[in-house]
Specification:
By secondary structure, this protein is of the alpha+beta class. The chain has 8 helices and 18 strands. The protein has a 6-stranded mixed beta sheet with strand order 9-18-17-16-12-15. A 4-stranded antiparallel beta sheet has the order 1-8-6-3, with no helix packed on it.
Length: 379
């Protein structure tokens, strides 16, 4: 009996999944329910399990490739069975491989001499980047092969040298998903920004007495403020503003593979100590890529903090489909005038990015002001 292993739908909006890695090779035995391949969709990594016990045959999607939902990834056959040639499907090439092939073909189409030109991969890459016709070069490599130095020498002689590329990093996996989602967000949602300084005196005192992080304090303040300003806890769907009952705060976490946003669910019902514990657990598991997929979806608002990197302030991009995101910079001691006296206080700059289709400037300013008051008065 032949069983298909297909790309699952991991969310309502998922259209394709990216193959991160195969845990099994063709010919390996698999058990029903055993993880076979890791896929990525919308920042969620997920282990696809074998639907049946048997032998893994004909892997149809290579690592790095994008596969539509429902497409065949591989086949599972019973012991002693063979896979019929009539149902074998062509392998799906990785996107980067397809683009490389297309560039090679395009270069060939514009080359007058339709013969194979012996050249190293780095030489071909540099020739493409600088629009150099390899038929005009005399190779100095073994057997007349064109090497990178030949192309560079030719460009120098022509006086058209551009910066040399030291490395090409394929835009795949989490980074590709992040790029797609944030590009879509910035093009679709009209971003507007409001910036305020917050007195962090009470926050610094709390930090010195406990293990509560500044990010946990921000999450606590945002969650409490959202309860009073439900319009900021919403999304725009089919021309309607959909306001969420649950307040689920996403936290931007940097990983070696790119940016991920794990979610603290019903954060408004948690005490600040509980938020601290949840945040520590989420951050650790996210960076080890061990976070359950249910904690990577369902966010209604996001908090991002770059203060630990000495950033004063920055303008964040809204995490779709949410209505807003709060960005925090570092704490800096600044002179503040109060009651005709100058005092030195720890100040953090807060930036609210909001979707102007959902929120207007005044309510957005009042919302950010509420967040600041919670930080300054209610921690």
């Amino acid at each position: 009996m032949v069983t298909k292993l297909v790309m699952p739908r991991l969310s309502l909006t998922m259209e394709t999944g990216n193959i991160i890695q195969w845990f099994k090779n063709e010919g390996d035995p698999v058990e029903k329910g055993e993880p076979v391949v890791e896929v990525l969709s919308e920042k969620i990594t997920y282990d696809v399990e074998s639907p049946a016990a048997g032998i893994l045959r004909k892997i149809s999607a290579e690592e790095g490739s994008d596969v539509p939902v429902g497409e065949t990834l591989a086949y599972i056959v019973g012991p002693g069975e063979e896979l019929s040639e009539t149902i074998i499907e062509p392998k799906i090439q990785p996107i980067v491989q397809i683009e490389e092939q297309e560039r090679e073909e395009e270069l060939l189409e514009h080359t007058e001499v339709r013969k194979r030109i012996p050249a190293s991969p780095s030489a071909k890459r540099m020739a493409r980047e600088h629009n150099v016709d390899l038929t005009q070069l005399q190779g100095t490599g073994f057997g007349g092969r064109i090497v990178e130095e030949d192309v560079q020498r030719f460009i120098l002689e022509k006086g058209t040298l551009s910066p040399i590329v030291s490395e090409e990093v394929p835009l795949i996996g989490i980074r590709k998903t992040t790029a797609h989602r944030l590009t879509s967000s910035f093009q679709t949602a009209p971003h507007s920004f409001i910036i305020m300084d917050s007195d962090m005196t009470k926050a610094v005192e709390l930090r010195e007495k406990t293990r509560v992080s500044f990010t946990a304090m921000l999450i606590y303040a945002v969650a409490k403020a959202l309860r009073e300003f439900p319009r900021a806890n919403s999304t725009l769907v089919d021309g309607k503003i959909r306001i969420y009952e649950d307040i689920n705060i996403g936290v931007a976490v940097s990983t070696e593979k790119g940016l991920l946003v794990p979610v603290i669910r019903q954060a408004d019902r948690l005490q600040i100590e509980e938020i601290t514990t949840a945040l520590e657990d989420l951050t650790e598991k996210t960076r080890q890529f061990q976070l359950p997929k249910e904690l990577m979806v369902g966010g209604t608002f996001t908090v991002t903090n770059l203060g630990m990197h000495d950033v004063d302030m920055f303008l964040p991009i809204i995490n779709p489909p949410e209505a807003g995101i709060l960005a925090a910079g570092r704490i800096v001691r600044k002179p503040i005038v109060e009651h005709e006296k100058v005092e030195i206080k720890p100040i953090m700059t807060l930036t609210l990015a909001y979707d102007h289709r959902i929120l207007d400037g005044e309510p957005a300013a009042i919302f950010l002001g509420k967040i600041r008051r919670i930080i300054e008065k209610e921690l």
